Amino acid sequence: MTLFITFEGGEGCGKSTQAKALYQRLRQQNISVVLTHEPGGTVLGSEIRRALKRKRGCLVSPEAELFLFVASRAQLIAEVIRPALQEGKIVICDRFSYSTSVYQGYGRGLSLPTVEMVNSLATQNLEPDVIILLDLPPEQGLARKRNLKDRFELEDLSFHRRVREGYLKMAATEPDRWLVIDASLPKNKIAKIVWEKVSQLLPPPSSLRGV
Fold first, then answer.
1. Does the pTM of the predicted model rise above 0.70?
2. pLDDT of residue 208
3. How far apart are CA 145 and CA 135, in angstroms?
4. What's the CA gap between 138 and 198, in Å, rounded?
5. Is 132 helix (H, G, I), strand (E, B) or coil?
6. How far apart are CA 92 and CA 71, in angstroms?
7. Average pLDDT in the 94-107 region?
8. C-alpha–C-alpha distance, residues 55 and 25, integer Å
9. Domain ranges in the chain?
10. How far apart are alpha carbons 87 and 2 in whole angstroms?
11. How confident is the model at residue 148 (pLDDT cuts 50, 70, 90)?
12. Which of 97, 101, 102, 139 has a CA 20 to 30 Å removed from the CA of 172?
């Protein structure tokens, strides 16, 4: 059995921490799992990440930003995600296409149908089995980022509020696939909620061990 899990959320929500925690939990049970992230995860993706995260000296239009993100995603799917799923592994991805929908769509104001079309082209309609959204008011999330590192974190509060609004709207349309968690909860409590959801999707332990 394969399983594709993605973590989503605004700045400072703790999704990377929880993605790593789930990865370690699965590894401890001898379950074959791959942890990756966006943008990045490949040589090409890492180059694109550096360009997108740079604070100064690189003005990127919303349209160019959109295409850079999906280029990184297309390469990650071809090089990492699909091969791992084909090998029967569980894949955990820190951000996926939904980040593009909220950041470039809701946040930047690009046409949502256009963003969805470009996303579909990049993903070839690959969709996660479960999307874990760590929801946090942007004021709290940004307060956690003591040293602002990139131009997304430096956007004004209204941008981050639109991002959060976009996430919640998407989650409301597919409640069976989206797991929305209050990211202000203690880390161990969040990890427990994540595990309760994921463990329900796993086959019996005997069929996973040694994969």
1. yes
2. 47
3. 16
4. 26
5. strand
6. 19
7. 97
8. 35
9. 3-208
10. 8
11. low
12. 139
Helix (H, G, I), strand (E, B) or coil at 187: helix
User: Looking at the DSSP assignment, which residues form a beta bridge with residue 182?
Assistant: 135
**φ/ψ bin of 100: left (φ > 0), alpha (ψ from -120 to 50), beta (otherwise):** alpha
pLDDT digits (tens, 9 = 90+) for 82-92: 999 999 999 99
Which residue from 130, 142, 102 is spatially nearest to 200, judged by alpha carbons?
130
Question: Residue 70: pLDDT above 50?
Answer: yes
Structure tokens at 77: 């799917």
Give me the pLDDT at residue 60, please: 85
Is the C-alpha dihedral spanning 40, 48, 169, 107 positive or negative? positive
Of the candidates 206, 205, 6, which has an alpha carbon nearest to the alpha carbon of residue 93? 6
Residue range 118-146: mean pLDDT, rounded: 93
Residue whose pair of structure tokens reads 């997304």 in the numeric block: 152
| Residue 167 to residue 177: CA distance in whole angstroms | 13
Residue 147's CB is within 10 A of a number of other CB atoms, namely 5
Six-digit token pair at 90? 């569980």
Instruction: From the options 3.20.20.70, 3.40.50.300, 3.40.1190.20, 3.40.50.2300, give the CATH code of 3-208.
Output: 3.40.50.300
- Here the tokens at position 132 are 């874990």
**From 7-16, 57-66, 135-144, the region with the lowest mean pLDDT:** 57-66
Q: State the Cα–Cα distance between residues 138 and 129, nearest whole angstrom.
A: 26
